[in-house]
Amino acid sequence: MADVMTTEQRSRCMAAIKGKDTNPELIVRKYLFSRGLRFRVQVRKLLGNPDIVLPKYKTVIFVNGCFWHGHEDCRYFRLPKSNVEFWKEKIERNVARDVRNEAELKALGWRIIRVWECEIKTVAQREEYLKHLYDRIVNPTQSYLMETDIDKPSIAAEPESEQSYGNNNHS
Ligand SMILES: [Zn+2]
Known about the structure:
Layout: H1 7-22, H2 24-34, E1 40-41, E2 52-54, E3 59-64, H3 84-107, E4 111-116, H4 123-138
Parallel strand pairs: 3-4
Antiparallel strand pairs: 1-2, 2-3
The structure holds zinc ion.
Zinc ion (ZN) is lined by residues 66, 71, 74, 76-77, 116-118.
């Protein structure tokens, strides 16, 4: 068969391939998996539907898009020029919900790590960042822990067994 793809099909195909590689959540999952960590994904039984759940380390990871989760002082977070009020309110609601969810998860004994899309945007920064992330997960008592990770879980909360490696519909 000759090359039958139209230009449009080809570009859609390339976009799909590219999208796969640049999906921040997949990048994190792939890396942690390659380092031997096993986890659950998109756990609906936990508040906020965490992207990655590592029961062994009592850790949940949220991989956040900078726009939807209103990453402060981030160059990738820019409100659209039209409907500013609408977007502003929407993002503020998302941020408030994230804060609430995190507080409740912490109260249940989970350690929360937030990964921002911009932190793994380029291949150059990605490698170092992911190594560091792995260390943060497996050595929770090390002094290089930052912000939210300092609170160590006091109560062990085991999520219900759920083997869903299905893909996401993350907003
Ligand atoms: Zn960001």
